[in-house]
């Protein structure tokens, strides 16, 4: 990411005083600016209900940079915040849009911007449709330049609500003007999945059901629901993490090589994976998916309360804070290979990892003792470390011979840690460039809801009597282990450092 892009645009951030804007958006735009990736002709307009002057807003933006940007010491903050403006705004009020319109027109003149607009919806999802329709009705989308809509998750609550939202925004923005954010697609090692697969002669010939026995994706968090109990009660881990981030990783791992590295070609291949997901029928949900909810426990040597004690959570809540599942992809390449996925809050470690487990050799020439033999695994470390490890077997360095498991390691953090951009930084950069490859197409969203809905409906109709069923600080309920054991596999143990 060395290029300077033509960033001539006004970026309007709806929800400018919110958590996402402060923790992710301002620091990311600042990092792009500080690294010289932006031209000087851009402006950022923050809108939210509370009354702030430009000066107060700029001070808030500076504070968020000091708190959240690794680049804050470089002291370009003063020149940076001169690009920031604030407009008190209520999304349901017509006058707000009119005031915003004239502000944007003034900024076009002040910064010589040819009418290019990025509308970034960093607000509660129930406002997304209203904002898009009002932007159109009040004439904010009729400009001489281009317009783009960046939309945060969750994109709907199920397929019907996602369709309704999509119809509303499509009245105003065409599909190629819509940038649906999935921040996992901005992570360095998630973007690296395609490169590992398609830029190495080594893996692609083995990347199929003849040589791979199963693939495991774990995204575990140590945090609980924090202040988001209200949202999480309606969402749960299935909608919060699986419908989007986890299924996106499945698609990248399973897709066929695209014809070219164009947005359309890559999306088409991902869409084919979503279309090949074996539907989980309601009667079979328990065979393929398990759910958990955390009880009180200890995380990082600190005692924490159970989910049902969190604020804004029903004391008898049936919401899952953990999901494990077996996802089958019914196509020629993957028939018979389970993709095991798991994610949860208040687990033992903060870690996202992919483990590709290769099949056993056809014949055992070397391994007289079990401990001499290691599995052949490719482990892709998404976070907190970034890199990968290949687990192989080699000769023991001893006159008595024998074999020993070894690991080949690539650690991306130690090579480029200072320059590793945050996910949002990459995605904002792509959006300003007009590259939607790492954003989700509507078809991907629709197909992933189609896969998720029967599971969430079955769970809503059947209360889990066992809840809470895992202690905070563990790796989830016992039945998550059983899901793999019945197929003859086990979760490869995960620590924040890698596999044990
Ligand atoms: N926070 C995060 O880490 C993540 C958030 N997201 C998504 O991003 C979006 C924003 O989340 P987050 O920042 O956490 O939410 P917050 O609740 O922190 O912020 C909401 C923002 O909306 C503004 N707002 C609320 N009502 C109105 C209104 N009627 N008119 C104008 N502005 C209004 C609030 O400001 P004011 O009160 O001044 O009006 C505030 O700026 C959500 O869709 C969320 O799901 C996605 C991934 C991660
Ligand atoms: O989208 C979300 O992601 C975070 C986890 O993101 P990560 O980058 O820290 O892995 C999760 O905490 C949150 O509940 C969910 O909405």
Automatic annotation (TrEMBL):
Record's catalysed reaction(s): D-glucose 6-phosphate + NADP(+) = 6-phospho-D-glucono-1,5-lactone + NADPH + H(+)
UniProt KW Oxidoreductase keyword: yes
Gene3D superfamilies attached to this UniProt entry: Dihydrodipicolinate Reductase, domain 2 (3.30.360.10), NAD(P)-binding Rossmann-like Domain (3.40.50.720)
Top-level taxonomic group: Bacteria
One BP annotation, GO: pentose-phosphate shunt, oxidative branch
Sequence ranges assigned to domain Glucose-6-phosphate dehydrogenase C-terminal in this UniProt record: 195-492
Enzyme class, broadest EC rank: oxidoreductase
EC assignment: 1.1.1.49
InterPro entries in alphabetical order: G6P_DH, G6P_DH_AS, G6P_DH_C, G6P_DH_NAD-bd, NAD(P)-bd_dom_sf
Transmembrane stretches, start-end: none
Sequence positions that bind substrate: 183, 187, 221, 240, 345, 350
MF-aspect GO terms: glucose-6-phosphate dehydrogenase activity; NADP binding
SUPFAM superfamilies the UniProt entry points to: Glyceraldehyde-3-phosphate dehydrogenase-like, C-terminal domain, NAD(P)-binding Rossmann-fold domains
Pfam families xrefs: G6PD_C, G6PD_N
Pathway where this protein functions: Carbohydrate degradation; pentose phosphate pathway; D-ribulose 5-phosphate from D-glucose 6-phosphate (oxidative stage): step 1/3
GO cellular component: a single term: cytosol
Binding locations of NADP(+): 15-22, 49, 90-91, 153
Key words of the record: Carbohydrate metabolism, Glucose metabolism, NADP, Oxidoreductase
Family annotation (NCBIfam families): PRK12853.1-3, zwf
Protein family (similarity comment): Belongs to the glucose-6-phosphate dehydrogenase family.
HAMAP family, sorted: G6PD
Function description: Catalyzes the oxidation of glucose 6-phosphate to 6-phosphogluconolactone.
Protein name: Glucose-6-phosphate 1-dehydrogenase
Native organism: Exobacillus caeni
Taxonomic lineage from the root: Bacteria, Bacillati, Bacillota, Bacilli, Bacillales
